[in-house]
Specification:
By secondary structure, the protein is of the alpha+beta class. It has five helices and ten strands; from the N terminus they run E-E-E-E-H-E-E-E-H-E-H-H-H-E-E. Helix 2 runs parallel beside helix 3. Keywords: Endonuclease, Hydrolase, Nuclease.
């Protein structure tokens, strides 16, 4: 990721990438040396960082001589073309067998392996530069393919590919935030209306007391104001 690198200029663009065509990567670069080892990519962290198995252990691998726009760096926005670079790396490398050529310095200050990655015997570091999804980043002594990769970057700039398509992208501008649709409000069903009690009609208090010896309060189905002579809201009380 960009934190490692002393680089050229910064990322981005606003135009979407064309659909990924894995067959196009056969045009990319030199074949791996005999010292390169085979491994399977188990995870993609972002555009220039992956995870694979090395000597029986899961290792994080940072690509040499390139830098893709940031997507996960603390206190840094998601930069233009960062998501596209990550998506492309994931599309091409995830769960694929690759060849890994370690650098002269095999690890960085974070303990990550430093390497050139080859898929179908084509250097993927170089492919990212061709697509405009990365820029050259120089950290000596890992400069074996520097001139070759600088030449590829120059062509990508001339074509205004990817990050070279706008000033904002070249300068590491932030990608627009994807608006998330608000969650629909959960409305509780309206309570079912209560059916009022059916009125009980009695001719007089004598009849009412046969059923309700102490009389009834106002609101009761049998309450009638004419039986509440003292107007205390209680009918037919004794």
């Amino acid at each position: 990721m960009a934190s490692l690198l002393a680089v050229t200029v910064f990322f981005g663009s606003v135009s979407p990438l064309s659909p990924i065509d894995e067959s196009s990567i056969v045009q990319a670069a030199a074949k791996p040396p005999a010292t390169a080892f085979k491994s399977k990519v188990t995870d993609v962290v972002d555009g220039d960082t992956i995870k694979l198995i090395y000597k029986g252990r899961k290792e994080t691998v940072r690509f040499i001589l390139i830098d893709t726009p940031e997507t996960k760096k603390p206190n840094t926005c998601v930069q233009l073309f960062g998501p596209e670079a990550s998506a492309y790396t994931k599309k091409v490398l995830l769960n694929k067998e690759v060849k890994v050529e370690l650098g002269v310095d095999t690890r960085d200050q974070y303990g990550r392996l430093l390497a050139y990655i080859y898929i179908k015997d084509v250097m993927f570091n170089k492919t990212l530069l061709e697509k405009g999804l990365a820029r050259v980043a120089i950290y000596k002594p890992n400069t074996k393919y520097l001139k070759e990769l600088q030449a590829v970057e120059k062509v990508a700039k001339g074509k205004k590919a990817g990050i070279w398509s706008s000033v904002n992208a070249r300068n590491g501008g932030c990608a627009p935030k994807v608006a998330t649709a608000p969650k629909p409000a959960i409305t509780k069903p309206a309570p079912k209306p209560t059916t009022p009690a059916k009125a009980e009609v009695f001719k007089n208090c004598t009849e009412l007391r046969k059923k309700y010896p102490s009389g009834v309060a106002k609101g009761h189905a049998a309450y009638q104001s004419k039986m509440d002579r003292d107007k205390d809201n209680w009918a037919c009380e004794r």
